[in-house]
Amino acid sequence: MVCRISAVIGVLALLAASSSAAQDMPNPQAMQMQMQQIMQQRPREAEAAARAFLTLVAPERVNGLDSLREQATAGNNQPVIVVDGVPVSSPPSQDQYWTEVAQLTVQFDMVQKLTRRDSVRAQLVAKMFGLEANARAQQRAYRTASESIRPAIHKQIVALITQHFDLEDRLRGLEIADIERRLAEVRAESQRRLDKRTEFIKFAVDDIVRDAIRPR
Q1: Cβ atoms of 58 and 133 closer than 8 Å
Q2: Does residue 92 belong to any structural domain of this protein?
Q3: Is residue 26 scored above 90 in pLDDT?
Q4: What is the pTM of this model?
Q5: What's the rounded mean pLDDT across residues 114-122?
């Protein structure tokens, strides 16, 4: 879940079946580019957006984000290689912080767009992103934990991903219901056309004939 946007892509795939929910959703490539721009340019507004979103979906992780920021600030004295005005390498603490900020900012934007179309799906997606933020924090902790502590962290990650899977299933259930509803509508319309086949043909023929004899 670090340095990737695959979770967001997965959510977009789940939403694809819902025309109302998927409308106006950015494509995965655009979201990936947005993340990369944030990581390179490091705008302050992205920091504010990330913190605000985290406060909504995973308030218990706000202190962790602040800690990453402090580590990134402390690493500012370390050398950074810049090519054509763009940093191409930076201390690991800065990478971790800005990767997290970029991920949260892109997710926040996605949830805001989705809320305007479908608040129910937006709530589920926001909860999923909150669980992912917690899983990323546990992932970072696992890297530096001793072997005696890792089993406990592993157990927490399993619990988080289990909850994420359950939310995915709920979201998928909404998509299935949407597909079934639209299929029922198409079948009903097809049956209506079959029931009124003769009438529809007569109307179409009458239109053609009237157009043929209409003065030019």
Answers
A1: yes
A2: yes
A3: no
A4: 0.75
A5: 91
Tell me, what amino acid is at 66?
D
**171 falls within a domain:** yes
Please write the tens of the pLDDT for every residue from 172-199: 999 899 999 999 999 999 999 999 999 9
- Alpha carbon distance 174, 46 (integer Å): 31
Give the residue-averaged pLDDT of 51-64. 95
- Within a domain: residue 155? yes
> Domain tally for the chain?
1
Hey, how many other C-beta atoms are within 10 angstroms of the C-beta on 216?
Answer: 2
Q: Would the CA dihedral through 75, 76, 79, 83 be positive or negative?
A: positive
Strand partners, 83: 86
Assigned domain for 1 exists: no
Enumerate residues 6+ apart whose C-beta is below 8 A from 157: 135, 138, 139, 142
Could you list the residue range(s) of the whole structural domain that residue 122 is in? Answer: 6-213
Residue 24 phi/psi, 5° resolution? 70, 5
pLDDT at 3: 42
Q: How many C-alpha atoms does 93 have within 13 Å on its Cβ side?
A: 15
d(CA 34, CA 42): 11
